[in-house]
Amino acid sequence: MKKITIAIDGFSSCGKSTMAKDLAREVGYIYVDTGAMYRCVTLYALHNGLFDKDNNIDIAELEKRMPQIVLSFSLNNTTGMPEACLNGENVELDIRSMEVSKRVSHIAALPFVRRALVEQQRRMGKEKGIVMDGRDIGTTVFPDAELKIYVTANARVRAQRRYDELKAKGIEADFESILHNVEERDYIDSHREVSPLTKAADAIELDNSRMTLSEQKQWLLDRFHEATEQ
Ligand SMILES: Nc1ncnc2c1ncn2[C@@H]1O[C@H](COP(=O)(O)OP(=O)(O)O)[C@@H](O)[C@H]1O
Ligand SMILES: Nc1ccn([C@@H]2O[C@H](COP(=O)(O)OP(=O)(O)O)[C@@H](O)[C@H]2O)c(=O)n1
């Protein structure tokens, strides 16, 4: 069967990566979490003192250092899922912290950061057979993707899902701060100048507020079969 490119975009914490991972596993495609890449650059900036005490970014220094920021994914043999590495170090857990979540949308709005990461993402998807999730995959990274999904869900539902996830991982979490962060990121991501989050004209929209994990998995699998049978 011919391999296609699948782009899954949408708001923060609505289940994009869960759906993308489930589908990739089911159909034997590569899965790429592009949010993890923006989170890694943010973690690098945090670890290297590129934010001042008011959270302003040293943009000139970050731009100079971009070529030194090497992002990769390594396979977790237990889960079978790729985990984010920053300059060779596995940072999968660190990049999910609120410290990173609070700053990532500001980093992701910088044009030189987007240019560098989009280039890497296009390289990763060159052979097709890929499920990539993010904010600009169907609009900018792969505008010709054969299957594009745009996911939404009620903000409180999304914040609750993220809260439950952080708790389960043993990461300190507070529902109101998560809700605030989810809404703030949605706003910044949808209003930035370069590749703002928006539904591609040919994307299929899914509101999964009231869907179970298995219902949304099946829904996506059905869309995949429709797209590959054409
Ligand atoms: N339909 C659903 N019902 C309940 N929880 C869900 C559903 N979809 C995803 N989740 C959970 O919500 C959290 C956020 O999902 P995730 O896939 O990381 O979102 P995104 O990639 O959009 O940020 C995860 O803990 C995931 O297990
Ligand atoms: N393709 C992408 C993916 C993420 N991002 C940025 O990276 C942030 C983190 O993405 P994410 O997918 O990990 O976010 P969650 O919804 O999983 O919390 C987003 O809020 C965006 O600011 C982006 O700008 N473009």
UniProtKB/TrEMBL annotation:
<feature type="binding site">
    <location>
        <begin position="10"/>
        <end position="18"/>
    </location>
    <ligand>
        <name>ATP</name>
    </ligand>
</feature>
<comment type="similarity">
    <text>Belongs to the cytidylate kinase family. Type 1 subfamily.</text>
</comment>
<feature type="domain" description="Cytidylate kinase">
    <location>
        <begin position="6"/>
        <end position="216"/>
    </location>
</feature>
<dbReference type="Pfam" id="PF02224">
    <property type="entry name" value="Cytidylate_kin"/>
</dbReference>
<dbReference type="InterPro" id="IPR027417">
    <property type="entry name" value="P-loop_NTPase"/>
</dbReference>
<keyword id="KW-0808">Transferase</keyword>
<keyword id="KW-0418">Kinase</keyword>
<keyword id="KW-0963">Cytoplasm</keyword>
<keyword id="KW-0067">ATP-binding</keyword>
<dbReference type="InterPro" id="IPR011994">
    <property type="entry name" value="Cytidylate_kinase_dom"/>
</dbReference>
<keyword id="KW-0547">Nucleotide-binding</keyword>
<dbReference type="GO" id="GO:0016301">
    <property type="term" value="F:kinase activity"/>
</dbReference>
<dbReference type="InterPro" id="IPR003136">
    <property type="entry name" value="Cytidylate_kin"/>
</dbReference>
<protein>
    <recommendedName>
        <fullName>Cytidylate kinase</fullName>
        <ecNumber>2.7.4.25</ecNumber>
    </recommendedName>
</protein>
